[in-house]
Amino acid sequence: MAFAVPVSGGDTARMPQVSPPNTIDIERIAVCGLGLIGGSVVRALRAGRYRGRITGFDVDAALLQRLCQEGWIDEAASDAASLFASHDLVVMCQPVEPLLAFIETHGDCIATGRAVGIDVASVKVPVMAALRRHGDAAMAHFVPSHPIAGKAIHGWDAGEAELFKGKHCVLTPEPGTGEAALRRAQSLWSFVGARMSVMSAARHDAIYAAISHLPQVLSYAYLHSLAAREGTSEWLAYQGSGFKGFTRLGASDAELWADIAVHNAQPLIAEIDHLSDALGLMRHQLSRGDQSGLAESFALAREFHLRNLPPDEPLPE
Q1: 122: closest CA among 257, 255, 214?
Q2: Structural domain boundaries, residue 175
Q3: How far is CA 266 from CA 126, 131, 270, in A?
Q4: What is the rounded average pLDDT of the residues 4-25?
Q5: Which residues in 36-128 belong to E strands, given as ranges?
Q6: Per-residue pLDDT tens for 183-229?
Q7: Domain tally for the chain?
Q8: Using an 8 Å Cβ cutoff, are 171 and 116 in contact?
């Protein structure tokens, strides 16, 4: 049975509520890092009328005090090491580099505590490597997770209770991951509305290098090429919807994405090389005036798109 404790303190009128209430068999949950993802986890728990206790941990002490006063969290933790002994689930929502440092510092606590740990990082191999250094017990208590949900803006105020509804969440458990730990992680993601897939950490990082990290780098690279030349900002007065759609990712947090890219460097470099090969082919076709060959290259790309990503509306021929 979940531990039924009323939300303590402050004005809870601003917190969304849904009916009927969901159930989740986890009594005490700690959320580390109360930005977009951590904040959305807390909001989703409250929206689902989670009956247990929520502890918040964040470097922003003023934010923690505010969230306690508003009733979003039941208590604020000042010592992360104690979370693993006193909670059933610890959700680590830090960016990659701070997360790796957190695991390095608290890996032994993960190994010896009662809590199951889950993360939300966009890369998984470095996370598992950091955890592995703390032994089999740490691995058994940890379920790597990646909810495929995000926004261009970050911070607590950007969070949404519905952020995970219907979204994918990829889990990358190792052979040593405990079955009970996996079930606990699955119950959390199910409670907040996510749809789960399971794969290896290496496969995850290779896939997301191709379908997430490379598009982000490509958008930055294209905009970088414009920013490096004078007068290009004047061209933007003539932009259309295609330019806006293609460059949308360029508004994303630069430091956050540099952190992700560096920690998935080898798979991402491999994808950059594949893209360079395709661009090289098209450049060669252009330089020769090979319209037929270029049309074939474009058609191959278009057929892949139509076969796998059909447009909502027919495109003009």
Answers
A1: 257
A2: 28-199
A3: 12, 20, 6
A4: 42
A5: 53-57, 75-76, 89-92, 116-119
A6: 999 999 999 999 999 999 999 999 999 999 999 999 999 999 999 99
A7: 2
A8: no
